[in-house]
Each structure stands twice: as structure tokens, then as C-alpha cells.
Design goal:
The chain is α/β, with parallel strands linked by helices and 252 residues long. Bound molecules: zinc ion (2 copies).
Length: 252
């Protein structure tokens, strides 16, 4: 848990935020220091501040709030390794999905080429950044002949809570993993629409239309004692469908 530095909150319904004070309190008790960034609707800060006054133990942990844009796609965070953006969903209140995109890593040095050309250590960093190799006699060896492509980048999209929303397809197209809510089974499509949620069939249709590689469904209504029928009907449309359980890990 100590590795958590950023928290992304799609919307301010209780099932998505009531765990937050407990989580912050636990992080502080475990000795986390520095900054904790929370990306959420601007109202969250107001909701949290009253409670935070009673958390004396968090003095070494500074919570910083970053308001989301619910009108259009927006960049939320970026560093050398990852880009995180938000995109509007359609729910009873303002709600955002999130797209996590790993950025390309450096080129890999081709070990055989390194020994063939006796590449000095001093030039290796420049080469992984794309520079050509210049030999002692002035010969230029193009970068592509001495490097191998970077690792493939991975991406993850998180969509909850929302109606089935076709306009997000271009945003999430081709991601390695899509988490999409499936509050109801396919036979309750009318109720899903009325409550601004999706069915497992719609989640699968979204995964298929957006050509994602793997789908994880969750946010199941408590009416379902077993969610296997929801997973099974989704798999008819999109075979690579899995159910989400707390603590699960999905390898990309
Ligand atoms: Zn909700
Ligand atoms: Zn919810």
C-alpha cells in the first residue's frame, strides 16, 4: 500500500469514496510520508476536509486534490513512464473514465552489434536515445543497425459507472485491458438504462467494438449471488472476459 501515490476517483457516489478516509488513515498509520494526490471531482475536497480535521496522525502525509474535467477528454498526469487521461462517462452525476498508457521505453542496444563495432561505453546512452554510431574513421552506422525496438507499451482503461457509451470507443480502442462495469445481466437492460449503468452484454459489446485484448467486468449488483451467468453471457460476445474480485491481479 505504501506505493500508492495517486488515487483516481471516477465520481462521488458513496460506493466509490466512502473507503477513502479509511485508506488515507491506514496509509498514515503505516508511516507513509510525502504527498498523496487525489484526482476527483472538485467537491471531494470539501467532503473530505471535515473528516481530515479529526485525523491527527496524518501530519506527515500531505493530501493534494486535483479536480477532473467532466466536459471533455483531458490529460490528468504524465511522467517519463506513463500518461493518464480522463474522459467523460454518462452516469446520474458527473463521472469520468481513466486511460492509463505506458510511454515507450528507450531503444535496446543490440549486443552483437555492440561487440562487432566495439561501441565505446561513452556513446551507448546516446545510441539508446536514437543517435547513430560514428566510428573512428568517420563511418556512420545508422541507429537502426545497432539497436532493437523498445518493449511494447501497455495500456489499461477503467470505465465505471456508466451507461453503454459508444462515443468512448476511439478513446479506449485497442487497450490491453478494459475494466468495464456490468452492474446487471443482459436481461435487465431497461433497468440498467434507467439507473445509468451497463449490463454484462453491453460491457462485452464495448470490448468487442473497441477491439481490446482483455475485459474485466465488475461493479455487480448485490442481487447476484453468483456472477458466473454474467461472465458467461459476456464470453459469448467477447471470450476474453473475466470477473473482478478485490485483490485480483491481471497480468498485461
Ligand atoms: Zn455511481
Ligand atoms: Zn458505483
Amino acid at each position: 500500500m505504501g506505493k500508492i501515490n495517486h488515487i483516481f476517483i471516477s465520481h462521488l457516489h458513496g460506493d466509490h469514496i466512502y473507503g477513502l478516509p479509511g485508506l488515507i488513515s491506514s496509509l498514515a498509520l503505516y508511516g507513509k510520508k510525502g504527498e498523496l494526490h487525489i484526482h476527483a471531482h472538485s467537491d471531494l475536497q470539501q467532503m473530505m476536509e471535515g473528516m481530515m480535521k479529526f485525523m491527527n496522525e496524518i501530519t506527515d502525509l500531505k493530501v493534494k486534490y486535483h479536480p477532473l474535467n467532466f466536459q471533455r477528454n483531458a490529460l490528468v498526469f504524465e511522467d517519463k513512464k506513463i500518461r493518464i487521461s480522463s474522459f467523460p462517462l454518462k452516469h446520474r452525476i458527473s463521472c469520468c473514465g481513466f486511460l492509463f498508457q505506458e510511454l515507450p521505453t528507450q531503444l535496446h542496444l543490440d549486443k552483437q552489434a555492440l561487440s562487432r563495432y566495439e561501441v565505446p561505453v561513452s556513446q551507448r546512452l546516446n545510441i539508446t536515445n536514437g543517435a547513430d554510431l560514428i566510428l573512428a574513421d568517420g563511418t556512420v552506422i545508422p541507429n537502426s543497425q545497432i539497436t532493437l525496438p523498445p518493449n511494447p507499451t501497455r495500456s489499461y482503461a477503467f470505465c465505471t459507472d456508466t451507461l453503454f457509451l459508444k462515443k468512448i470507443v476511439p478513446t479506449i480502442e485497442g487497450v490491453d485491458l478494459l475494466y468495464h462495469e456490468a452492474t446487471f445481466a443482459g436481461d435487465l437492460a431497461v433497468l440498467a438504462k434507467k439507473t445509468f449503468h451497463s449490463t454484462s452484454v453491453q460491457a462485452a459489446e464495448m470490448a468487442k467494438t473497441a477491439k481490446v485484448k482483455k475485459l474485466v467486468i465488475g461493479h455487480f449488483s448485490s442481487r447476484y449471488k453468483s456472477v458466473l451467468p454474467l461472465v458467461e453471457e459476456a464470453r459469448v460476445i467477447f471470450p476474453e472476459t473475466y470477473e473482478a474480485n478485490d485483490g485480483d491481479c491481471f497480468e498485461l
